Amino acid sequence: MLSRIADSLFWLNRYGERSDVVIRLVYVHYILSLDRSANTSGSWRPVLELSTAISSEEISKIENDTTAALRKILTDETNPNSIKCIINRARENARGAQDHITKEVWEVVNQMYHSVNQPTLQSKLRTEQAIKVIEGLSKSCVLFAGITDNTMSRGLGWNFMQLGGFTERCLQSIAIINKQLQQNSFKENSSNDIFHWRQLLYALSGYEMHLKTYRTQNHDSNVMHQVVLNENFTRSVIYSLIRVNHYVKNIMLIHEDQNEMLLRTFGRLFSKVRYMDLQAMETQELHSFLNDIKNDLVAFTNQLGKYYFSHS
Amino acid sequence: MNLETLINQYNQSAGIWDEMHDGENVRKQYDKIFSILHHLDVPTLQQKEKIANELFMNQGITFTVYSDDEGIERIFPFDIIPRIITAAEWNHIEKGITQRLKALNLFLVDIYSKQQILKDKIVPAKLIASCPHYTREVFGIKVPHDIYIHISGIDLIRGEGGEFFVLEDNLRTPSGVSYMLENREVIKRIFPDLFVSNHVRKVSDYPLMLHQILLSLAPPHISNPTAILLTPGIFNAAYYEHTFLARQMGIPLVEGRDLVIDNHKVYMKTTRGLEEVHVIYRRVDDEFLDPLVFRQDSLLGIPGIISAYRKGNVAIVNAAGTGVADDKAVYTYVPDMIRYYLNEEPILPNVPTYQLSNDDMRQYVFDNIGKMVIKQTNQSGGYGMIMGHTIEEEEWEKAKKVIENDARNYIAQPIIKLSTVPCFIDKELHARHVDLRPYALYGPNGIQIVPGGLTRVALKEGSLVVNSSQGGGSKDTWIIDEQV
């Protein structure tokens, strides 16, 4: 497979996953902000901080203005991480690798592109139709994942796509967890209030699973266990890393070539998470631990890129 | 309103060949279509039109129009009424194109080796020497099987009496074949019933035929050759077609930056390392192919590819240098080439063409500008054309000066009223002008022409310019066997 194609497929799924995460964040926040109470402000600040790179002052200007915040996150072209920009780039990658993805995958990416680029989108976001638009986008992200899974042959291309998707998922989950840790400290708070963590669990679509899995009242550590260490939770850090491990191995198998350096870098980072001691960690410690994992993973993808994608 | 009234209201202009209607009746080849269309009403047709447009849009068969700094994706307009050509007409076209291509290919072999045709003064040497597409850099290169023009799209038009003329030869990287194939798929979706009764010849074999030809051009000692399609990239207007063909043939779609040359061999950069390439179907123009030989500022090309080509390590399709044969000034001499190389009379005539470098002809053209169209010899896509019957006085005075200073690069042709076919526009059937581009493939086993082609339509009323860049659309083209 051409290095350029491998690179494009890797990024196609990274962008696909990223839009999925950001759109869910927006959706969850939108719904939760409807039932504001005394202790929830409904400010868009956390979502804006997670999904854009704009300054704190700029955030202050729009954090309480739902329309402006939605615009920034979803359709603003000056925000390189807006859904519109992400999907445009996803499509560009899909176009460049069009002969390596199925017609079905191409069509769904193309449809997403047309739906974020339709001229009426802006005005819909200003009205009560906004939630419908967000739901529609969210659905097409799921569709993208499902169609990819159902139609792509399990060759090299698929492995690079999945590798990209799960790398992105791991990075996004870490970012969201860390954002939440900034707001609610972990363990310090003696309250046994699950509502406290509800936003995090919704954002990672793990609330239902939490209710079914964890029966004790020790919410803080239960939640952290689920989002970091629960191997059955598809958006946990460990789950994403297990998948990354799987696809890296597949890629090496197909190439009949073991890259020691890549294996070592990944093995190290993987063991760190697998054998971590959650119980012994304080909030701050956990926060910086997750940060380290994020940096290790970024370093790993850089190595991977040098090895497989260097085409210029 | 039903279709019957629409057909009765159909207005063709006098003095123009209409392919559906002979002035009194619907021609026989259109009978079956209209007997089915009769049962439909306008809203149904509109619905079908909408479905067709959505199919094109969702598949990304679009091009980008820029206005107010914003790119808007548009589909190429598609008309849902097919254009029909009878088996007898097609037979004639097929013979004519085969003959013409044979002669043009012999001309290219000759012009890049012995240049006998210049020595015999059939074609003036000056004309070739001044042709910007004559490529000295490939002189003397022996191309596989002596074939230069593997893929061509020769544009045909029909005059007032219904006879076919060759309008231009596209021998470099003709595009549009994906529209021929996709138009057919869309028509099948929206009019499944029409197909069964009409015995339309199929076009879908084109990619397989092309793939066979590509593989047959590889260096002979390679048992399992690798063929690729070289594209300028996603911003090229024909990028959709490149992906379409690569996918249909199952070959890698590659950009210049994916390739490197080492020791006069071409390799592509893959996740496994370098992999050798033997045949390149390039959709990059000659001048961008190799910055060491042609334009140095080209980022689309591969430095050193021409030297690999010269060594015979890689085949380039179409061969480099074919542009000299589709130069609009050289076009005038194609009938002479047919007589010279094949000792035959041309089956498909040229449109009468005046060389503006000839003083008498230039005077004649200037005197009769109202009936003429002037074209630049090295332009395509409908750019640089002057339509004599519509140009403003002032503009013409300016253009005249430009032409006089650079007469070699201009030709003139009488304006031919292209034939018309019915189009479904604004809920009615209207006559619009069309041309026809059949696609021919030339391999070691001879010339094959896919029974069909791209019919381009000038959608504006009265317009004679069919190019997609100038407001043209397209139609599915059916070759049908009448006797059944």
Q: Nutshell version of this structure?
A:
Chain A is 73% helix and 0% strand. Chain A is mainly α and 312 residues long.
What can you tell me about this protein's structure?
- The complex is a heterodimer of chains A (312) and B (484).
- Chain A is built from 15 helices and no strands.
- Chain A has 312 residues and is an all-alpha fold.
- In chain A, helix 1 packs antiparallel against helix 4.
- The radius of gyration of chain A is 20 Å and the shape is globular.
- Chain A starts with a helix and ends with a helix.
- The model of chain A has no long low-confidence stretch (mean pLDDT 89).
- Chain B has 484 residues and is α+β, with helices and mostly antiparallel strands.
- Helix content of chain B is 32%, strand content 25%.
- Chain B is globular.
- The relative contact order of chain B is 0.18.
- The chains are: A mainly alpha (312), B alpha+beta (484).
Blueprint (SSEs and pairs):
The complex is a heterodimer of chains A (312) and B (484).
Chain A lengths: L2 H32 L10 H7 L4 H7 L3 H10 L7 H14 L6 H15 L3 H6 L3 H22 L4 H28 L11 H9 L3 H7 L5 H11 L7 H19 L4 H15 L8 H27 L3
Helix pairs in contact in A: 1-4, 1-5, 1-8, 1-9, 5-6, 6-8, 9-13, 9-15, 13-14, 14-15
Chain B lengths: L2 H7 L18 H10 L4 H17 L3 E6 L2 E6 L2 E9 H25 L4 H4 L5 H5 L21 E8 L5 E7 L6 H14 L1 H7 L7 H11 L10 E5 L7 H11 L3 E3 L3 E4 L2 E6 L2 E5 L1 E4 L3 H4 L15 H6 L4 E3 L10 H4 L2 H9 L11 E2 L3 H9 L4 E5 L9 E2 L5 H13 L4 E5 L5 E6 L2 E10 L1 E5 L2 E4 L4 E5 L13 E9 L4
Parallel strand pairs in B: 3-22, 6-7, 6-11, 11-12
Antiparallel strand pairs in B: 1-2, 4-5, 4-19, 8-9, 9-10, 13-16, 14-15, 14-16, 17-18, 18-21, 19-20, 21-22
